[in-house]
Amino acid sequence: MAATAGAGMAREPNLLMRIASRPTALIGLIIVTIVIVLSVLAPLIAPYAPGQIAVRFRLQGPSLAHLMGTDELGRDVFSRVLHSGRTSLGVGFAVVIFASLIGVTLGLVAGFFRRFDAPVSRLIDAMMAFPDILLAIALVAALGPSATNVVIALGIVYAPRLARVVRASTLVIRELPYVEAARALGVPTPVILVRHVLRNVTSPLLVQATFIFANAILAEAGLSFLGVGISPDIPTWGTMISVGRQFLDQAPWIMWFPGSAIILTVLSLQLLGDGLRDFLDPRLAKDV
Amino acid sequence: MLRAALNRLLGMAIVMALVVTIVFIIVRVTPGDPAAVMLGPDATAADIASLRQRLGLDASIPEQFVTYLGGLLRGDLGTSIFLNIPVAQALWLRAEPTFFLTIFSLLIATAIALPVGVLSAYWRGTLFDQAATTLAMLAASIPSFWLGLIFMQVFAVQLGWFNTSGFGGPGASFAERMHHLVLPAFTLGLISSALITRFTRAAMLDVLNDDYVRTARSKGMGEWRVVVRHAFKNALIPILTVVGLTAALLISGAIVTETVFGLPGVGSLIVSAVLRRDYPVIQGALLVVAGLYVLVNFIIDMLYLLVDPRVRY
């Protein structure tokens, strides 16, 4: 009790200060921020338009004029990597939002209302029996290949993970005295769910969302690479690698750089997620 | 014990029933007529009607579901539209590369991850631990298809040690076929080792400070024996779990890796089925892979029951 009171009186460090106290998480945050800024500002930073064809400069290695070389149509790989980041990060972010909408709803319902717990939990188990890429491929095949459908498919794939985390936290929060007090005072259930439960599951949710963001970027790249995701006309890191593989022995840089962009982004998101988990959800910190 | 096993079996049956329902629904969420989508824009109305009848799509949804369930109970996964053979047969014909790729990848992953994870926990906080943890995280960040292409460029194109693609043709010997799996297996194995390393490290950290480990040390037992005989043996349950689940997930990794290396396995069958909109094959593959995953989970749970008497379901 004394500790709680003491902690209450002391000024609690905010999220950013906590991240700054962990070097790896800080590095992750800095790199993620740089990647996001570069992608958002791609039209301003990129020296060439992503679709600008210059066949006489095709398959040229990295140089001052083309920092990451050119592809089979003479397009600037650096400009395409920057623009592809917009699509890849955009899809990743949209997947997190969509998966959160489904996952949080399912998790809250399963965790808060006992009668829904068993059926929703079994549904979550069944959804998690499908490997990520396989279920995403099947859903995209059914819905048709497009950026929106990739987001829907990956959102459905990752929603059960979030649902499981939210359910576990909700089960604990439901029994806490302040939730019981709110019930006794006649506070409507939706208000309790949003104001008391949802607010207290944001920490584990944020940690999972970071990992899902990373996984969604990898999965989208995989789908694009296989040719079952976003249209090949739209540059993404996955489609760039898919095209680059045909020129593996002549111009390997076409696939080196988008691949490196994926690794850098996913790695930094994982570093950030690990750091967030360490102080936001310490119970899970030792598990993985 | 028997009661717990039966409880778990019932749980597995419920999950499997839901898996079957989800697979059935996925194909039916296709916007428009699945038969028209499968046949493409050049199909005539008669072709579409014929395919609808062949696939049973002209019946009501509940009737379709009953027919589908009846087929499954008889072991009938449907017939491939493009290959014109039963889906089960199509999957079986492509099983060899996927089976061996999964086995080799798992062997490579565990051969790397177990010693690295154990030593990383034992030398916690040292340079070795930091390097191992960082490398594991890096491995988990690499797209498998990208790593496969890099391996292909270095070991097949530049050094010429391996073939760039294929499974050795129809007359190839077993050894030749397996030679084609070396690069894909290392690609998948290295990436999968990341997860197993992290779980092994975490499981070992949990047990290394336990009383019985301290007691074993205080009895003067050699350090190596303490770590392997006492700590590792007790950390084995969570490690086995993640190894088992990795085995099931490797099938998913095989989809991409087989495509990169042109292996004629289940993974590439699924990709070609998606590109051709061969829904019965997609449906059958989903069901078999998810079924394997549920089965692996069940086996792990049963092993828990056998190994740890405290576990109850």
UniProtKB/TrEMBL annotation, chain A:
Its main location: membrane. It comes from the Bacteria. GO terms for cellular component: plasma membrane. InterPro entries: BP-dependent_transpt_permease (IPR050366), MetI-like (IPR000515), MetI-like_sf (IPR035906), OppC_N (IPR025966). Belongs to the binding-protein-dependent transport system permease family. The keyword Zinc does not apply. It is a multi-pass membrane protein. Pfam families: BPD_transp_1, OppC_N. This is Peptide/nickel transport system permease protein.
From TrEMBL, chain B:
It holds the Pfam family BPD_transp_1_N. Keywords: Cell membrane, Membrane, Transmembrane, Transmembrane helix, Transport. Residues 95-304 form the ABC transmembrane type-1 domain. It comes from the Bacteria. One of its GO terms (biological process) is transmembrane transport. It is found in: Cell membrane. It is a multi-pass membrane protein. The chain crosses the membrane at residues 9-29, 99-123, 135-161, 181-199, 235-261, 281-307. GO terms for cellular component: plasma membrane. InterPro entries: BPD_transp_1_N, MetI-like, MetI-like_sf. The keyword Cell membrane applies. Belongs to the binding-protein-dependent transport system permease family. PANTHER family: DIPEPTIDE TRANSPORT SYSTEM PERMEASE PROTEIN DPPB-RELATED (PTHR43163), PEPTIDE ABC TRANSPORTER PERMEASE PROTEIN (PTHR43163:SF3). This is Peptide/nickel transport system permease protein. It comes from Devosia enhydra.
